[in-house]
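Q: C-alpha cells for this one, please.
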Amino acid sequence: MSELARVAIFILAAGGSTRMGRPKQNLIFRDKTLLQSTVDAARGAIEIAAGAGITVNVIVVLGANEETVRQANAFENCDVIVNARWAEGMSSSIRCALSHLDNLTGSRDAALFTVADLAHVNTAHFVKLIDAYVASDAPLVCSAYADKAEAGATILGVPALFNRQVFAELMTLSGDVGAKQIIARNSSSLIAVEIENAGFDIDTEADYSQLLGA
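A: Here is the predicted structure, written as C-alpha cells:
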C-alpha cells in the first residue's frame, strides 16, 4: 500500500449466548474471561503497530447482558459501543460497528473484525493480519485454519480485516450471519493468513469443557 494503514479492531461481543445458557463472554479460561483475553490481545497490537507507523483503535461491541459483561471485564484504552439491536444477529453488530467509524478521530481505512469467544486468538494473530494487509493491495485479509469436520479442508473466517471499499457490502448483511459470507464472495481477491486454532469457538457447554480439557 502507498499509505500507512489505519485499522479499527472491532470485538463483536453482543450476542445472547442462547446455546450456552449463560454469557460466554465471561467464561474463564487461563485466569481471564474469554472477552478479556480478546481485548488484551487486541490492545497488545496497538503498540506493536504504532512502531510501524500504523494507527490501531480497539472497539468492543456489547449488547445482551451488557451490565454483567461490563462488570466482569476491563476496557481501558478501548471504546465500548452498544448494539441495541443485538437480537437481530451478528450482522447487526457489524453494521453498528461500521456506523461507529465516523465517530472516531480521523478516517480509518480498514476494519478488523473478531469475536469474543475465539479462545486461542492472540496479539500475534492480529499483527500478522495487519502486516499482511499493509504489505498488499488486497481489499480483504482473513484467517485460514483447518476444518475439524473435514480432513484436509481449510476454513476462511475471522479474525478478518476489510478495507473500506468492502464496507458497503458488509452493511448489506442481515440476520444472524457474519463476515464469512463476504469472505466467500471475495475469495478471488483476498489474502488468507494461516492462523492455527483460530477457528475454535465456544458455543455450548461441551465446547467449553473441551477447551478446559485441552
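A few notes: Helices lie at 34-50, 66-72, 90-100, 123-134, 167-170, 180-185, 205-213. Strands lie at 6-13, 28-29, 32-33, 55-62, 79-82, 110-115, 140-146, 154-163, 191-194.
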